[in-house]
Amino acid sequence: MVTPTDLSHLGPAQQEIAGRSDEERMRYILSDRWVPYRVAQLVEERFRFLIDFPKRSRMPCLLVSGDPGMGKSLMAEKFIRDYPVSFNEGTGATIRPALHIEMPDEPTPQAIREELLGALGAPAGKSDNRTVARLVESVGCRLLFIDEVNKIGDVGPKQQTLCLTALRTLHNSLKIPLVALGTPGADIAIRLDPALAERFEVLGLPHWGSNEDLRDLLLRVSAVLPLRRPSEMGTPRFRRLLIDATSGVTSRIFRLLETVAIAAIRTGQERIDEDSLSDDKLLLPLVSMVRNRRPKAMA
Domains in the chain, please, with CATH? Predict the structure, then answer.
């Protein structure tokens, strides 16, 4: 256990971790964690608005649209963790406030219902909307996330019509808000059914730019990476280098920061700065490769 002198740049929990071995700190950096940022907080506020929405004949829906890696699924998973499964001892019922399913690769009405049955822990089999709705109601579900809704656009017109009709009628039966998650183009697929599209609001997840939002994110990240010296990630040049290397995609930003943080531990630098992103020895994830960088040959 190392006892660095000044760790005021870290949060209380990370100050303790910063005194651990290099291996422990690197494992911590690579472990799952949630770092809040402005857009994610706006999305979470909307989710909370929907899960607490009072019952009425036509419940609202939301489409969260963004490129792969922008954090749509992670936002839904984090929200569901905030509303965990519980057990009602009085009724003997398992309560699931929010459910998350993925649009099947071959989206058909029955396949969508089977996905829901699987999320409920019910046996697969032929079912209708009414049966599924009763099961959803029995677990106290108040919000349903449907991921990868853009898959609707990958099938033929006839199957698209059947799938969209199934979503609309399922929504009628469930009487809870739906949150659809998908890549750009998901909105086009949903608009093919005007009656369904009327129920949706759209919230887009933009790519990051070299702005105050990114500066705030980097300040938050620097406080949770257990490096023993303060990092300098707030400069305009650092932000530009980061955006150039990641195209402003959220998952790439976090992966690259993890990579340079681990490099800082291994080299003993114990901080991240502009040179961290300019290092010729830096191995970038494939999706972070930019035009002026070529894959490195193994020595």
Answer: 12-33+224-288 (no CATH), 38-204 (3.40.50.300)
